Amino acid sequence: MLKDTLDSYGAVTRWFHWLMALAVFALFGLGLWMVDLTYYDTWYNAAPDLHKSAGMVFLAALVLRLIWRFINPKPVPEVESALERKMATFVHVSFYLLLIALCVSGYLIATAKGQPLNVFGIVRIPAIWTHDGLETPAGMVHRWLAWTTIVLALVHAAAAIKHHLWDGKRTLVRMLRG
Fold this sequence. Notes:
It is built from 5 helices and 2 strands; from the N terminus they run αααββαα.
C-alpha cells in the first residue's frame, strides 16, 4: 500500500518520515562536526560541500513530502483530547516551518558572497540575495533553528513512545508498519 488510508500510513509517507528523520540527525551531526574543522583537516572543504548539497536535496525531498501530504488522505489521529490534537498539529506545522527555515538560512549562508551553491557537482543554484556579512546572522539563525529542530524531534519521539507504551495507541506501529 503506497497511499495512506484513514487507518494507517502508506509506504510513501513512512519512507519520507524515516528517511527525513535520519537526514535531519545526520545533517545536524555533520554540521556540529564540520564547524570545528581546521584548515589542515582532510574534510575542511569536503564536509561543508557535503552538508550544503545534502541540505538542498533535503529541501527538494521536503517539498515533495509537503505535496504528498496535501494530495494524500491523512490517517485519523489516535489522540483523544483536544489539547493533544492541538499539540500534534502544532508540532507537525512547526517541523515543516523549522525545516524550511533551516534550508533557507543554509542557502543564505552558502550564497551570501554571491557564489552559486553547487549541489554534488550536478546542479548549481544561483545566489539570489547577496549581502556582505549575511553569512554571520544567517549562520546564527541556522544554528538556533537546528538545535530547536533536534529538541523538537526528541520531544516528538518521546511523545510517540509515551503514546505507544502508556496510552496503548497504535500511532508508532502505524508509522513503522502501516
